[in-house]
Design a protein that fits this description.
The protein is mostly helical and 152 residues long. The protein has a domain of 100 residues. The chain is rod-shaped.
Length: 152
Amino acid sequence: MAKFIYKMENILNLQSKLESEAKIQLTMANNILRQEQQKLKLIYKDIDSYEEKIRGYSRAVLDLQELKRCNDAIAIKKMEAEEQKKTIDRAQKNANKAMHKVREAMLKRKTQEALKEKAFEEFKKEVNEEEKKEIDQVVSYQYNGKTEEGDL
């Protein structure tokens, strides 16, 4: 039996490799996004701790110096939080781009796989046609050979 050879197998392999690379980039982008989100959580946690200190000072002896330091720290942490939100937005955009690349790579790979499957089906049809022709020739030869022997 003939062996099926897909002429564009190298393109299919390339598409598979590109898809794998895109998935790796997506994973890295998502990891960066999670790290940046974790940083924002820590900033908010710091803000909460400073606010808790301020609430504690309102119940105890008032230390204006420490109160001012906490208020300044809260203002700084809020600015850090705003910057961190911008960083998260950039990381989210990068993750979205990476996801888009993965989708495109998957679509191209699936298209190549569909073309390969279609070529394989065509190959099977051709092989079946060839086998039918060979069987017809054998049957015809056997039939013609018997009739010639019977005529003699």
